[in-house]
């Protein structure tokens, strides 16, 4: 039977077959994810676990059959395979592993990964396949015309709700019995705190992730950091563009607003580059960290060494600040590992300067263009981001060195003190790692840290704060006012007045919010002095994660305040304000001028 005859035979049943396959895949994806959560979070009996895994493997086998049927019903089969190459690769791995396990008695995934000491490899493989199929089906449902017509939600509100969904999902997973080493399940407020801190890439912790969570719990923590760092919408839209019919105009508009790209076309290109760039930098970072572990850092096996490398690379690039060591990078095995500290600092800088800047400065395409045209300058956003970030890093390095030279740096030589000062300056603005005892810092140092944390990272990055560009625009606006200049200028360009209004709005909103939350914390947790509370609050709002050691001791009301602060700081004060605001009925009129005495 030739291809044309086969297509004619299948044509009449194509719509019915696709409807059945879609419903079957959706139901089985939900069932597989539910069984995985139940197996890894609740079940203790080995016999029951084996039964659950057999059921999950059966579901994965059905996924493979459905994929082959979709190829059969796709009349342009070569184009279909090319378009769904990632899904096809995943299904091929499942097929090979199923044949090896149940036909030849040789579980391929288990033997390959367990052979190099990577634990839970089979479970992770099942989780990846099931989650992928579930995400694929959810995206298809969201892209149907029925849903688009029924749900008219602004992109900013969708962005806010996506993080709510992510942190609630993380909370539920953390509360499962097998996610922690504690005799009882994690309290709701503590689980919500850790899920929010991970999803909002903050790094504040009420428990020690390295000892309190089991390996499964640490995997959940890592997934929340990765998805929170880039945004769950970014992942969803990326998968939609990678698979099947691609992304519609509505998704492009949403990502255009959230990524603040210059055009819808640039958003489409930026999205795919963003994911691949992130995974590439994290992979390189994990490899270099893996090679930099000193002899003092001991691991149970090669798999745990690899996991620690991946975890710290992702945590650093996403500016999360979580570490599997009890005192962060100040813990004794890695306290003097200055090569490791510098690698982590570089990952933090890459994650903090923003994806648009990375693409403009460091992408192969941009570097080739500048080799051919050396006179071509960086974009204005890149220049402001890099020069401001470099100035703040220098300010923090010199300031920390001078303020702490006879305190926390007193036992280090000049070079060690300089590296430590540089690391703390880099990590303070957004990441939250520490190589010194934060609780032992002088008050002037804490005040400088609060200033650096409040400014934070750059637009389009994984960091928080009011952003470096906001700080720069405010400075330029103030200088223009002092000099009595009509326009704000930078790099032979004029900054529109609405940009300064936006910058001052963000600053005012952030300042009022922090002052209010500090006031509330001074009531709920009066046992701590105001400096420690202010440091904790600004660290949470700027999604930094540094703490003077009071996080675990906060009251439930205080933890709730910090949770709200982390969430608002991550989604952005401007995004929150836009989501809650309503448009003015008309902006075409102008009232007469009035004069007010200010200053």
UniProtKB/TrEMBL annotation:
Membrane topology type: Multi-pass membrane protein
Entry keyword set: Cell membrane, Ion transport, Membrane, Transmembrane, Transmembrane helix, Transport
InterPro entries according to UniProt: Cat_transpt
Compartments (UniProt record): Cell membrane
Domain of life: Bacteria
Ranges that cross the membrane: 20-39, 51-73, 85-104, 124-144, 156-176, 219-240, 274-294, 306-326, 338-363, 384-403, 438-457, 464-483, 503-521, 560-580
This protein's name: ATPase
Source species: Pontibacter aydingkolensis
